[in-house]
Amino acid sequence: MTSVLHNCSTQGEFHLVAFSNYPHLQLAFIIGICFMYLISILGNLIILIIVCLAPKLHTPMYVFLCNLSVLDILYVSVISPKLLFIMITEDTSISYSQCLLQLFLYVFCAATEFYLLTTMAYDRYVAICVPLHYILLMNKLKCSLLSFVSWNLGAVNAMVYTLLISKLSFSDSKEINHLFCHMMSILKLSCGDSTHIGILIIVNGFTVGFMCMILIFSSYMRIISTILKIKTSSGRQKAFSRCSSHITTVLLFCLTSLSLNMKAENGQSEEQDKLLSMIYIGVVPMLNPLVYSLRNKNVITALRNILL
Ligand SMILES: *[C@@H]1O[C@H](CO)[C@@H](O)[C@H](O)[C@H]1NC(C)=O
Fold it and tell me: Whole-prediction pTM value?
């Protein structure tokens, strides 16, 4: 314990190991990540353009969807370009400030995405359970307020995490066995006692995650009970189609983030962790626009109107 404190410093740079343990798969990973990055950016840009150009889609649900798309673009751009750069140049270094910035933006995006999905669940609840009051309950002011709160709560979360991490000092070996400056991986490198920060981060993560999931879940319980009370099957289908895109996104997002964060923090799972986070940073932002465009009649109609 006495030797722990020497060789501690706050400056310097980190090294992101990424996939350098798999030299034979390097090229495949580069192509895969590049592909997912381009699809994510393109897909989300297309969603933004469609919603902007189609007056019919200027409803709260699609405006929140735009928020989500902006967030997804930011999210992938925080992680993928640096990761690609590291894999292509084989220069694994990332400066301390770059690492903190990546951490901040990554937490910001993840937390805000949770809040926005919760907001969208509320929007679907109002649309399906109290449709007559929809215009009144989801007015412009309230939508702006909800999105303002989502973005700012996310920023506060990220700020707290980043401040906590910036207080740490690190040992000489600064190798992060991950694809980006992931919080837990940085925490492992700190010298001195950081367990209380680790606990704080886990508790906060679970609180935010579970609170949002409980809110989303209770919205959907009411939505489902309302849908089940509808007499005709065509009416039921219609009501369901109004929330199916959102529920798909929620399931994707919650399942991946749960699977990523609930595992025990042990050494063997680090490699598994990296592969799982590929889903999280590559696949999820790519799927959102697909889910909303392929499964959503309004978006397809709007796209057709724009193109024809
Ligand atoms: C996000 O949502 C708010 C509130 O509905 C809206 O005013 C704002 O324009 C949206 N932002 C984007 C980038 O779509």
Answer: 0.88
